[in-house]
Design a protein that fits this description.
338 residues, HIT family, subunit A, 10-stranded antiparallel β-sheet, binds zinc ion
Length: 338
């Protein structure tokens, strides 16, 4: 293990960020186990008071679609967010008063994906094909949003546990359609372009390494990235070069469902059901063919074990106390039958 190792600084060539690895900053990796064994934002919540439970559809904002369609015993529902950050009923307008200040109207989409009708079921409790249905719901919604003229980027994300930002415990994720390209996306694309220009390769097609590998499936592999910003961070990467998540087909959705389930279960066992986030990093809608060759989508899972402090906010650099190869070894060795 890395406790005796010297600090090291690594560059994440995908996000273009520097990360400091400093085992001295942590107690042993096992001490990072979630302090809160139950990350439920409201442990007393129950299906009788939960708007996301089956039978409570009338307490939710309008439905966009459900899977399967037109049945009362749905498996997945995509609904409007009752408290949206951006509003679909606003006109998109650039109201920048001059070139020094940029102002857009608050137009955009903010949806909720209810991943299961059952209150007490986590995403990782679902079968691989049920998780596949959730992923296909993301795909369908992204395709719908791609038809909206002013949409630039869609961010899919999940907050699990109060300290990962969740306000409701019923298993759900969110989709935001944005009329601008967020800064993390622009810097990721720039960094991947630089890698491509230097090496003539896509950084993610090249990222697989035995030391960092956790597991693999027919179409995907999971790794701890070489310059992970967060302890036990995991990336699930398509083996075949693909720029946009919404190109996923039904077979790949089930295959990804299997690997995602496995990674969530491994994190839950190794770190005692930690609060976590996952994010799908896809490409902006309007990309020319020359940009497609270096943009490769992936899914990032971040267990929330460390606190972001002044250094991180000030510098944009993260300090990770766990070397990625040690985290990958621990996660590879978590064994159970699915
Ligand atoms: P989170 O805060 O990550 O747990 O996500 C839950 C989301 O559900 C929040 O963004 C809320 O605004 C949204 N929300 C809460 N109640 C409802 C409801 N009844 N219908 C639709 N969205 C809701
Ligand atoms: Zn519920
Ligand atoms: Zn690639």
């Amino acid at each position: 293990m890395a406790t005796g190792r010297n600090p090291e600084v690594r560059k994440d060539v995908i996000f273009g960020k520097w990360v400091i690895f400093s085992p001295a900053r942590a107690r042993r990796p096992s001490d990072l186990k979630s302090k809160n064994p139950n990350p439920n934002p409201n442990p007393n919540s129950s299906s009788s008071s939960c708007p996301f439970c089956i039978g409570h559809e009338h307490e939710c904002a309008p439905e966009i679609f459900r899977i399967p369609q037109n049945v009362s015993n749905w498996k997945v529902r995509v609904i409007e967010n009752l408290y949206p950050a951006l509003r679909r009923d606003q006109q998109f307008e650039n109201r920048s008063p001059n070139s020094q200040s940029c102002v857009l109207t608050g137009f955009g989409f903010h949806d909720v994906v209810i991943e299961t009708p059952n209150h007490s079921v986590n995403l990782s409790d679902l079968s691989e094909s049920e998780i596949g249905d959730v992923l296909l719901a993301y795909k369908e919604r992204i395709e719908q949003l791609s038809c909206q003229g002013s949409m630039k980027y869609v961010q899919v994300f999940k907050n699990h546990g109060a300290s990962a930002g969740a306000s409701l415990s019923h298993s759900h994720s969110q989709i935001m359609g944005l009329p601008f390209i967020p800064p993390t996306v622009s810097s990721r694309l720039q960094s991947m372009k630089e890698y491509f220009d230097d090496s003539s390769n896509c950084g993610l097609c090249n990222i697989r390494s035995e030391e960092l590998l956790i597991d693999e499936s027919i179409h995907f592999f999971s790794i701890v990235p070489f310059a992970a910003s967060f302890p036990f961070e995991i990336w699930i990467v398509p083996r075949e070069h693909s720029s946009h998540f919404h190109m996923l087909d039904n077979e790949k959705a089930v295959d990804l469902g299997r690997l995602l389930k496995l990674m969530l279960m491994k994190l839950s066992m190794q770190l005692k059901d930690p609060p976590l986030n996952f994010m799908i990093h896809t490409s902006p809608f309007q990309l020319t063919d020359s940009h497609l060759s270096y943009n490769h989508w992936f899914l990032q899972i971040v267990p929330q074990l460390t606190v972001v402090g002044g250094f991180e906010i000030g510098s944009g650099c993260y300090i990770n106390p766990v070397f990625p190869e040690d985290a990958a070894k621990l996660l590879r060795e978590v064994n159970f039958s699915m």
